[in-house]
Amino acid sequence: MSLINPYTFIFTIINLVVLYLILRKFLFKPVTQFMEERSERIRNSLDEADRKVHEANELKAQYEEILKKADDEGKAIIDRAEKYAKEKAEKIIEEANIEAKAIIERAKEEAETEKIKAMHDLRVSLSHLIIEAASKAIGNISIDDDKIINEVVKEAGASWNK
Amino acid sequence: MEIGQSVVFTIPIFGGIPVTTTVVVTWIIMAILTIASLIVTRGWNQVPTGVQNFVETIIDALNSFTKDALGEYWASFAPYLGTVALYLILANTIDLFGLTPPTKDLSATSALAIMSIIVVIIASIKAKGLKGYAKSFFEPMPFFFPMKILDMFTRPLSLAARLFGNIIAAFIIMGLISKVVPIVVPAILSIYFDLFDGALQMVVFVFLTMLYIEEAVE
């Protein structure tokens, strides 16, 4: 009995090579590939998640800026509106004041006119009264001449007005 | 009890090729591994459960192990080392199922050892080219040439003899113990001689082969 059987030796080598090819095809390659693909997918997912977070942060910053801008703009608008309203109010008040002054002025003028008119009427009436009284006192002289009355009134009025 | 391998049948060509139990058991192991790998890789999910977990763990361990040692060349040699590991763990422990371990046959272990050395040479040529491989015999200095040549023989010899010696010793001891105390004691001792020693020899063989490959691709 020899220690090494050459046929068994060759058979074993062939068997080993065949087993290697079989296991590589059905076990090692598919499993390794599967795990690598999964690792790749997980890595991609993580990268994607990172990217999304980054994007979200960027968007957040952007929105915050927009909000801030909007806030500022709103404030500016309010300020402008306030200023405008104030100006408008002041203007209205001023106009009102001017108008009021004008009204008062006009009223004063009117009153003056009325006064003058009243004075005039009063003078006329008074003149009539005086002439009547005077004619009564003198005797029944009727002075119906309007010309004279008017003259008297004018004279009287002139001295009145002085 | 028989130390040599009995011939199971003879292929009637070339004046009769004897097929020993070693070869037949190897075929059985091959069948088991092929069917098992077809079964365990069926219906895999992205989220591993059960058997898939187990298989992934083992193959991942093998891959990272070879990756650590061989660097960029790991992908070419991990399947071979894994094949040898799976074959040896079954071959060394198949005595538990009443079959003759193929690794108690020096023909088989020497075939394994020669294969290992061939793989080492392939790795060396792959990494350094034919010229670089030839040069590696004279490195770090020409004085080492005889030792390098000696290495070519001592390495497979030690690989083959170590595996063969361990397994046949365990086989013989287990056979003797079974003769002396047929019950209970063989069961306990076979945990050491068959399972532990079988697994250990597998690890030693694969680890040494990987070490040689690592040295070759450096």
End-to-end Cα distance of chain A? 174 Å
**Which of globular, elongated, flat, extended, rod-shaped describes the shape of chain A?**
rod-shaped
Choose one word for the global shape of chain B: globular
Rounded to the nearest angstrom, the distance between the terminal CA atoms of chain B is 46 Å
Helix content of chain B: over 70%
The description of the largest β-sheet of chain A is: none
Total individual domains of chain A: 1
Per DSSP, what share of the residues of chain A sits in E-state strands of 2 or more residues? under 5%
Instruction: Name the helix and strand elements of chain A from N-terminus to C-terminus, one letter apiece.
Output: HH
Total strands of chain B: 2
Question: Tally the helices of chain A: what do you get?
Answer: 2
Oligomer category: heterodimer
Largest sheet of chain B: 2 strands, antiparallel
SSE string of chain B: EEHHHHHH
Strands across the major sheet of chain B, in which order?
A: 1-2
Most extensive protein-chain contact, per-chain counts: A-B, 32 and 45 residues
What is the structural class of chain B? mainly alpha
* E-strand count of chain A: 0
Please compute the radius of gyration of chain A using only Cα atoms: 61 Å
